[in-house]
UniProtKB/TrEMBL annotation:
Signal peptide location: 1-26
Record-linked InterPro entries: Ice-binding_C (IPR013424)
Name of this chain's protein: PEP-CTERM sorting domain-containing protein
Transmembrane residue ranges: none
UniProt keyword annotations, A-Z: Signal
Residue ranges annotated for the Ice-binding protein C-terminal domain, each copy included: 150-174
């Protein structure tokens, strides 16, 4: 009987050690990449090879804006079902002062989709951050896009107003000539 108790306790100890070692092997994968906006657009992909179940990841994509503008970004990951591939848990934009703009979760499960937009982004350095976890030993991939619609400079507004004023002046002058011709006839 004593022998069976030792075997049983040894089995419990071995199972506990295996459980603890599997939990201790989870790793946070951190990737830092610099993006260059070309024609106010950039895209990036995250890929995780198989065999990384239980790991988490933080991918940071840094980029510089040379002018203010409206910012929009989206991320998309398709895994086939909710138990495979990746689970995107956060999609954020961080400015150089550490202020955080959080994304909006559009769908989760077999397809993870997030969007993020702001209309008042000033020139400066920013980081687009993707956080998530790896759900299975299958490989996983996501794709993200960044777009910027620049806000016109004040000089552009001044030229536009001057052009509208010139059009108004020309239209009024034509109306006066047409009215004078109608009275003369």
């Amino acid at each position: 009987m004593m022998n069976k108790s030792k075997v049983f306790l040894s089995a419990i100890a071995l199972a506990s050690a295996a459980l603890v070692s599997s939990q201790a092997s989870a790793v946070e994968i951190i990737n830092n990449t610099t993006l260059e906006l070309v024609d106010n657009f950039a895209e990036a992909d995250g890929f995780f090879a198989g065999g990384q179940k239980g790991n988490t990841f933080v991918d940071n994509y840094s980029f510089n804006l040379s002018q203010a503008g409206e910012f929009a970004a989206g991320i998309f990951s398709v895994t086939g079902n909710a138990k495979n591939g990746l689970d995107i848990t956060a999609f954020n934009l961080i400015d150089s002062a550490g202020a955080l703009f959080g994304g909006t979760l559009l769908s989760t499960g077999a397809t993870d989709q997030w969007s993020l937009s702001t209309s008042s982004l000033s020139a400066g350095t920013y980081t687009l951050q993707v956080k998530g976890s790896i759900l299975s030993n299958a490989s996983g991939r996501y794709s993200t896009n960044i777009a910027l619609a620049p806000v016109p400079e004040p000089e552009t507004y001044a030229m536009m107003l001057a052009g509208l004023g010139l059009l108004g002046f020309t239209a009024r002058r034509r109306n006066k000539k047409a009215a004078a011709a109608a009275l003369a006839a």
